[in-house]
Amino acid sequence: MNDVLPAQQGLWRYFEETVASVVTSYGYRQIRTPILEHTGLFLRGIGEVTDIVEKEMYSFTDALNGEQLTLRPESTAGVVRAVIEHHLLREGPQRLWYQGPMFRHERPQRGRYRQFHQVGLEALGFEGPDIDAELMLLCARLWDELGLHNLHLEINSLGQSEERITHRQALIEYLSAHESSLDDDAKRRLHSNPLRILDSKNPAMQSLIEDAPKLDRFLGDASRAHFEGLQAMLRRRGLAFTINPRLVRGLDYYNLSVFEWVSTSTDKAPLTVCGGGRYDGLIETLGGKSAPGCGFAIGVERILDLLQAVLPEQHAVCDVYVVHHAPQSHLAAIDLAEQLRDHGLDVLLHCGGGSFKSQFRRADASGAAYAVVLGEDEIAQGQATIKDLRQASASQAQVPMVEAAHYILEHGFGVKH
Ligand code: ATP
Ligand code: MG
């Protein structure tokens, strides 16, 4: 679990603001659900034979009342619970988004933490592939706005459960015939969740997986039409994608379209930064009236890792740093700082004592565009000296104190804005 220190906040904020603006442009509304939910919600909502439920949940008994609780490992289950509880679908289909921390007990490594953050979207009550396409186009727009260009879309169709059952039979037959080549994980999953074996990263099993019966042979007409509809819309918008028949996603509840965005920058190993798909059975499984759903979640830390490489470093804390003849000038300096803030400027007022030299050092480190100086002379004359900290020539001007804000605004302020 990580601390997110002040130096990283600029990056986080930039990401969060860009997300908020892009999702709003598609009409998604934010929902905030609790970080703690009843353990049973995740057992039913995620599926008992998934990585998450088998070994990644932080679950505990509430000592005060004996309830079984879990720190949310993902948010789809919680959002769907809230939508059912508050009857939101009675108002019509819902386009929702969320952001916040998730918790999974995994082995920490680059891009994999025990507390991490997701931004996710859930579109509930929409059947067609048009909403699937919308979600993918929205992602593409977000990457574009953020300036990320090395993300690639992979899609697949998981069909419907009857189709998967037939495929599953064929898969179990095939894998049983090759049981001696299976690793322990695969042997354990052979009868409980054979589809997940296709997702194995064990190099020794890759050729076996390559030749396994593919689900697409088992898809019926409706599933095929849904998948083709999605592809037609993506092509129409010129959004490049690859069909990856091995993309099955980690959670049990998906059907039809599933997708992932994978980072393909050359200097780092490929990493999935976003994953999602359709989950038409989930609302009913969690006790609601049957309705389709589709969504995705972005791994925020993984995106920020990529973003850091393309963004210029931003470290400005303020527009203006007030340097003054402390401590005698405290009263005048407070007045001046408040007056500058009245005009919308972000101001760091030097607090405590210290020489002008040390105050200027702090002004530089703050990233401020201007220092406003109140020395003994200035105070005596009701003046302030304004120093442009970004110009090599260090231009400066003396103006009446009450005009300091106007002067700065007129001369165009700020690296921050
Ligand atoms: P993986 O197969 O890599 O474990 P997953 O299927 O468990 O991924 P999802 O549940 O689909 O991941 O979560 C969506 C996204 O959240 C992932 O694509 C990833 O970017 C991010 N994510 C998942 N787990 C973690 C984690 N432990 N730390 C940081 N980010 C994570
Ligand atoms: Mg995982």
Features:
single chain; 417 residues; eight-stranded mixed sheet; 16 helices; elongated; binds adenosine-5'-triphosphate; binds magnesium ion
Task: Report on the architecture of this protein.
This protein is α+β, with helices and mostly antiparallel strands. It has helices spanning 6-25, 39-46, 51-56, 76-85, 129-146, 161-177, 184-192, 194-197, 206-210, 221-236, 282-285, 300-310, 330-342, 356-366, 376-381, 404-410, and strands at 29-30, 36-38, 59-61, 68-71, 94-103, 115-124, 151-157, 241-243, 255-263, 271-278, 293-299, 320-324, 347-349, 370-374, 383-388, 396-400. The protein has an eight-stranded mixed beta sheet with strand order 1-5-6-11-10-9-7-8. A hairpin with a 6-residue loop joins strand 3 (59-61) and strand 4. The radius of gyration is 28 Å and the shape is elongated. Bound molecules: adenosine-5'-triphosphate and magnesium ion.
Judged by helices, strands and strand pairing, the structural class is alpha+beta
Number of helices: 16
Oligomeric grouping of the chains: single chain
- Based on DSSP secondary structure assignment, what is the total number of beta strands? 16
Poorly predicted ranges: none
Strand order of the largest sheet: 1-5-6-11-10-9-7-8
Strand content: 15-25%
What form results from the Cα inertia axes?
elongated
- Percentage of residues in helical conformation: 25-40%
Radius of gyration: 28 Å
Largest sheet: 8 strands, mixed
Alpha-carbon distance between the two ends: 32 Å
The hetero molecules present are:
adenosine-5'-triphosphate, magnesium ion
Average of pLDDT: 92
